[in-house]
User: Fold these one by one.
Assistant:
Number 1:
Amino acid sequence: MQCSICKEKPATVHLTQIVGEKMQKLDLCEDCAKTKGVNDPSGFALADIMLGLGAAQEVEQAVGTDLKCPRCGFSQADFKKSGRLGCPECYKTFAEGLGGLLKTMHKGTRHTGKSPEALRASRENSDRLKTLQKKLNKAIESENFEEAAQLRDELKQLTPRAPVSPVK
Amino acid sequence: MKDLHEFLVSPAETARRHGPHDRIVMSSRVRLARNLKEAAFPGWAKKPERVKILETIRPAVESLPEMKDAFSEAMDNLGALDKQILVERHLISREHAAKSSGSGLVLNREETFCVMINEEDHLRMQALRPGLQLKQAWNAIDHLDSELEKKLDYAFDGDLGYLTACPTNLGTGIRVSAMLHLPGLVLGEQINPIIQSVNKLGLAVRGLYGEGTEALGNVFQVSNQMTLGENEPAIVERLEKVLSQIIEHEENARQTLLEKKPKVVFNHIGRAYGILANAHSISSKETMNLLSLMRLGVDMGLFPGAERSLVDELFLVTQPAHLQKKLSDKLTAEERDLIRADMVRERLKNVSRPVINPPPNAAN
């Protein structure tokens, strides 16, 4: 079998790409395979391979026209080309367009799995602070000063900005 | 700098790793994608930024107790051949093998954890286990991730979860996968409907290196595709359920083939043995496909005395980079075919040709 690009050397690299029902075959010699970067199959029609057939068009619609990430400078065109984003902040920048894309791609649009321990702890902490603050306001309103004083002390202990300074 | 080849377990030893259902499930893997909060993703970051990210992440990974005596290297210090060997061992992705400066790899002593730094994401950490052990692999990588999050500042969003370079990995960043040897379903021509129904369940089926359904050596990888909206244990469990069904179908297909079309089976396996034991030039692809049939023959008891590990070892050492590594001169593909055939003939010298009447209990 001859290489389908240079039509000279024998083909030793055989590629089969199946997307949905469509199958494409390509037979290349070692040299042409190298120059075409075929060693890395992820280099092929990136967005299509990763996101499924026709995803490149969907990506186009998903992201607003001249949007650019203020943090990393990543643009709509870059996303269209690679199917990947520039930095974590891009998820905020392109949030509007991404919403629909995520819906078609995943089971849901809200994360329900693992989260970092530190974040979990600080979130629980801030939730508790909020409830205490509400209770305190209520206690003051109803002139229940004894309870208010207790709540104030509890809040003080929980608030991270007022650490107890160590005794010297 | 450690030498990769002194570090890696020998192919003979890797072929002797055992796990549950390893007749059919060759290995299990769980991979997590993580990124640092304050940096551009590897595909967009400029080289100096990538180098800085690598310098932040690599010591953090190395300091984990699981990574004691690990092999840790920047990708630009690894030669093309070494990278290809890591790909053939399924320790790194093809994409990662193409990386150089600013990317790295940390592999633990037991080869049960392999962390890729600056692949598509800042961190791609994987737990690997022989046979069907998805839960064990998940627990292992979950623990490693929890240790690592104390040392690194991950990009995480309350609604979207772990933020990844590609939206397809968003949320849990998890990919749970198993590598399956399914010659019975292929010979019985049942593989396509199975693949289609697995696809309908939202799972992906790929070939040995993800190149489409005509998988080399009848090896298929099954993995989850969706990563957002479902938690990790649910994803692991769903995959486990589907895998146990595929295993059952494969066992049934083998049984049915032996009962209904024994001549077809013996013909395939006998010819595979005939070529492997007598060829003087053989390509890597043909070798893999024929070794797959021999592996089936061993499972069916057609090669009394031969171990499955011999076939699995040959499956690895006949691949291009492993073969090239044994030789001092750089060979062309044609020259490799000659050497490969010599090697296979030599290793099969003491394996007798397949028996026609397998012991009745061999298929179980």
Note: Chain B is about 45% helix and 15% strand.
Number 2:
Amino acid sequence: MTKDFEQLSHTADVQLRVYGKDIEELFRNALRGMFYLVVPKLPTCKMVDDRIVCDEFTCERDLKVTSPDRDALLVDFLSDALYFFAVHKEVYLDVMFKTLTDTKLEATIRGVKHEGMQLEIKAVTYHDLHIKKIDGTWQTDIVFDI
Amino acid sequence: MQPTVITFEDLIKINDFLWEISKSFRPDMRVPARIYMTEKMFGDIRDDKSLVQLINVSTLPGIQKFALAMPDIHQGYGFPIGGVAATAVHEGGVISPGGIGYDINCGVRLLVSDLTVGEIKPRLDTLATALFNAVPSGVGRGGKVKLSAADMDKVLMQGAKRMVELGYGTEEDLEYCEESGCMPGANVDDVSDKAKKRGLDQLGTLGSGNHFLEVQVVDEIYDKAAAQAFGLFKGAVTVMIHCGSRGLGHQICTDHVRSMNAKMPDFGYQLPDRELVCAPVLSPEGESYFAAMVGGSNFAWANRHLIGHWVRETWKKVIGPDAELTTVYDVSHNIGKRETHMIDARPVELLVHRKGATRAFGPGLPEIPSKYKSVGQPVFIPGTMGTSSYILVGNNEGMEQSFGTSCHGAGRRMSRSKAKKLVRGSELRKELESRGIIIRCDSSAGLAEEAPIAYKDVDIVVNVVTGAKLADKVARVKPLAVIKGG
């Protein structure tokens, strides 16, 4: 399996390292990684290699984000998804991009309805977040305030 | 290349409880960084990024005297938890939302019963269950009070005072609360609709993580006069409430970090960590964030006030209609305040960031309720569910050393995932119950994450605070029943 994300140790909060073959996949894996922390299992979907796989998505939300640069764009994208989760009680596991540049994205996030969570993420932080390409793979760390 | 590792040799000993990293350690430091700890405690933070984060804080424009770390310091994002930074408001000082945190005005409220542990104990089990049912806790749990948009604006402006108007709690609860539960300076237009929406059903909820409600017994008195002023006596039963501004506060911080981030090129600051994003206190962005943060703080005070009301209501139902629960005080440990302190023998208006740190004002100050004025402001230091918590009091030395600030808890020393690997929630529950501590928590994983082993020794942390004379010990409490979300 290609590495998508992994959890790193952090004293008080939660830190993920996210990978992607391109920026789209990096953003998608960051979204999936964030919701993996929040809801590691869903009763309506199956698990494959410790990841949730849903046969179909039952809800969609459109996002438009403009940010000063790519790192900020990722934080703002995830923050908006977290907001939708908080108010609509939906878990997002995929994203379709209409536009994705260094400073702008237009996308539809897709997922399923779900009440409750294992972990409450308060926020996505900029701390130690630097999107970079290492040995042909895009990656970044993300610290979530919990 | 900036140093990323700080060794013990980089620290200069000021005294047994205070260490300094000099301003020359890194060229971008504006002031020295100071850490309150013992030599032995260095081991807890040696391998994480706490001290690098503290050095980063020392680079904030307008910072005065020192970037300070309390003995419960641990790694955060931007600021370390346990970090304190004061910037000069009228001399280009900045306000940094990350220096206050996403859980705006997370804090602690303490109530004391007129009954002793012997009188409560026979009904303690029933009481714990009743409190667990009365106060919504746990991840994503909404509350029993649903606010309308107009009500939300009133809560943001008036905080706990609005709760009293609606019939929850008493005027006396307001008197014994930092800022009387209603900090001036909020502006509802600076709080986004998103933030308001997230808060609509969250008033009166504990939340998850390290937030809790605890029934405790006073098992030691250190300062009789202060204890008497606070209504505490050996054997007295107390209730401690720890929570904050919930999703509303998280969204306020997220929104303002985002908007300040977009303005950073205009400010021209070179910051070592983007999470320290900031704006001059007196800029439109700084003032807008401050007004929103005050609104979030007022929401948090309304939240703890409402929980306090339900605790009291439940208490009377279980223990008896004449059983009293009096609010001792309510303190914030994630907040930014405009305060005047003496710098180089002159009064300077400062924006004091307390991120996982508690205001601890000494006696005589106008901010302290008249009943406590001669002794000082009460300070609460929650330990863990298996150890002690402390009630301290602010003093004059703390005013000079730390802008009147003390620590806020034991401080984590282990990640949540490591704690879960080492501790089984079910076994921890059994162990605590075998020691007579009642646990009401519907998540064993959540319990394991907050295991006492994951925290520093609160006795040592508090001994550093009192040894350094940042505050003085008044009383120690031990847990009888712990109610928490998962």
Note: Chain B is about 35% helix and 25% strand.
